[in-house]
Amino acid sequence: MRTYNWAILGLGNIAHKFAESLALVPQARLHAVASRSLSKAQGFAGRHGAAHAVGSYEELLKVPGIDVVYIATPHSEHHAHSLLCLRAGLPVLCEKAFAVNAQQAAEMITVAQEQQVFLMEAFWTRFFPAVTKAVELVQAGVIGEVKHLVADFGFAAPYEPQGRLFNPTLAGGSLLDIGVYPLFISKLFLGEPQTVRAVATLAPTGVDVNCALVLAYASGATASLFSTLAAPTDNQCILYGTKGQLQLLGRFHAPDGVRLQLTGQPQAQEIPCEKQGLGYHYEAAHVQQCLAQGLLESPLLPLSFSLELMQLLDTVRAQIGLRYPGEG
Fold first, then answer.
1. What is the b/e burial string over 244-261, where b = at least 16 CB atoms within 10 angstroms of the residue's CB?
2. Rg of the Cα trace of the chain?
3. Which residue, 211, 207, 136, 147, is CA-closest to 180?
4. Is this entry keyworded Oxidoreductase (predicted)?
5. What's the DSSP call for residue 176?
6. Most buried among 16, 98, 205, 240, using CB within 10 Å?
7. Of 93, 123, 153, which residue constitutes the final position of a domain?
């Protein structure tokens, strides 16, 4: 089996986590890293064993032997950096949120299809064994028809107006940073909602600190979703069905098992699932499987899913009055 040479574009905190996780992927090698600072790139490369370090994103395109690029820059840059790599013929795994808005996401998808190059959103949650197990159980009807889903994600972040989380220029706010997780999990289990209602509390910079959503579906199901940068929350996801309930164990975006409480059964059943390391290696291994098969998108996380998710984010932002610079 061949070895896949990975490159990382953008070297913030999540890039370090991804680089550590690559060590758990068979036939994966961190080959090149790119930052706007050469010294930062060289330090990162030394720490994680990358053969090449460059001090601009454009220089990355000149590094020979790259098989796939992981894009880990702020949300505001995902569109430009994905297009940079895709137009150079390099497969892309792009961090979520996929882009700032659906228009950008659609262009990324169009260019990938025109260039015949692989593109996938780096929604690592989709590839955890516990999520795979939960999807199997729900699709098999183990908890009956799902009638309601609740999911939350929150932590307390210091208010730094120029920081990534609160700066509108960097597409900050709880929704695109962590609210996308509850929205993702609701879409994974319940599909496209018919009705979306959103309210939010905005920071002085204009981005959302709290964002609460209620969704309704053609199936008759509903969902309650919440994200916040102002307080730690349980980070839980529970599905309520006609025959019982299912909970993703641990923090739901990186779960390590499934808990089933079926109606009429006195005790809940806990199903532990593998969770190695931080868990980013699951999505990386999936990308390599797709590339080995010559696929241009993931069958588990197709580009249509990511585009629809961005459209939902646009809908929510329109309701809470959050526009980013340059959106008009």
1. bbbbbbbbbbbbbbbbbb
2. 20
3. 211
4. yes
5. I
6. 98
7. 123
